[in-house]
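Reopening this one. Same input as before:
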Amino acid sequence: MTTGGTAADVIVCGLGPAGRALAHRCLAHGLSVIAIDPAPDRHWSATYAAWDDELPQWVPHEVVAATIDRPTAWGTRAHRIDRAYVVFDAEALRESLSLSGARVIADRVAEIGDNVVRTTAGTVLTADRVFDARGIARSPALAEQTAAGVVVPRDRVAGLEPLFMDWRRDNGAEAAAPRSFLYAVPLGPDTVLLEETCLAGRPALDGATLRARLEHRLRARGIALTGDEPVERVRFPVHGGTPGPSTFGAVGGFTHPATGYSVAAALAAADAVAAGTSVWPASAKAVYALRAAGLRALLALPPDDLPVFFDAFFAMPARAQRAYLSGRADLTGTAAAMRHLFTGLPPRLRRRIAVATLGFPVRSHIRMPSSIME
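Same output, byte for byte:
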C-alpha cells in the first residue's frame, strides 16, 4: 500500500458526466481536486439530453447539438410540450468540463471512507471532502431503462417530427406485451437518433426485443434501414441511489425515475456542492420519496394504460409538468403536479395508482413475459 503525496480539498470518484461536472466546478471554485476513474480519457458515446431551462448559465451553448422548441409526446393522442428540449454533443460537453489543474488518476476505487480513498493499486488518498460519483451498479432488484437505437441521416426521415415519446402500437408488439415507445431526436443538423425505449421494467425489455420492435415500427412508417447505421444501446437502473453529502449524480439519487435523466440535475447542482452547500434539504428528500412513489405507480400499470397515463400527464399545464420533471427540491410543485395528474386519470386507474403509490404490493405489469425471457 502506498500513500498519495498531497492531500486535496476534494476527491471525486468517477468521471462520467456527473463526476466530471463536479470536479470541473470544484476547480472553478479554486479548490484542489483529485479525480479517480479507470478510464479518465474515454470518449462519451451515449446520448445526453435535457430541458433547456434546467441548464446552469456556466454551461456553454456550444455543447448543445440540437434544440427542439416544442417536442411532441404521443400517448393515445399527440401532445405538444411547451418547453424547449436540448440534445448535447456528448464529446463537446465532456471537453467543456475541463479538468486542467486537477490530479487525475487512472485507477479503480476499492474503498471510500469519510476523508480517504483507497484504489485497487493500493494508493491511499486523503481530502477534506470525498464524493462518490461512480453511478449505480445493476441489480435484479432495481428497475431499469433499456433502449435500442440507430442513427440515420436526417434526409431519410424527412417529415418525422421530433418525438419525446411515442407510445403508439405500430412496433409489432403483441397486445398484452409490455409497452415501449419511440424516441426520435436530432443529434445535429445531419443525423437523427431513432430509439425504441422501455421506460422502466423489473426486468426491463432486452435489447433484441427492442431492436425488433424498432425495425418493425420504422418499416410501418416507411423508414428504411440499411443495416450499416451506427447503433446505440442503453441499459441502466432508474433508481437505487443514496442521497447524501458524499454521493453525487445517479448514485446520489439524482436520477428521475420517470425519465431516467440525471445529467442536467448534476450540472445544476455542481456549483452548490462545490461551494459546500447541501443540495438535499428536507424538501428535496421529500420530492425524492414522491418520485419513488411515482415509479411504483408506473411499474403497476397494465401495458394498455401507460399511454393513457401519459395522456393525462402531458395534458397538465406546462408549469405542473416542469415541477414534476425538474423540480428536484420543489415539494409544493411536485405534490401539486401529482394531485393534478391523479385527478386527470380515468377512475379505473386511480385505485391502482393510489395503492401502488402508498407502497402496498401490486403486481408489476411493466415486465417481460416468460416466453420472452426463455
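So the earlier flakiness isn't reproducible anymore. For the record, The first helix runs from residue 17 to 28.
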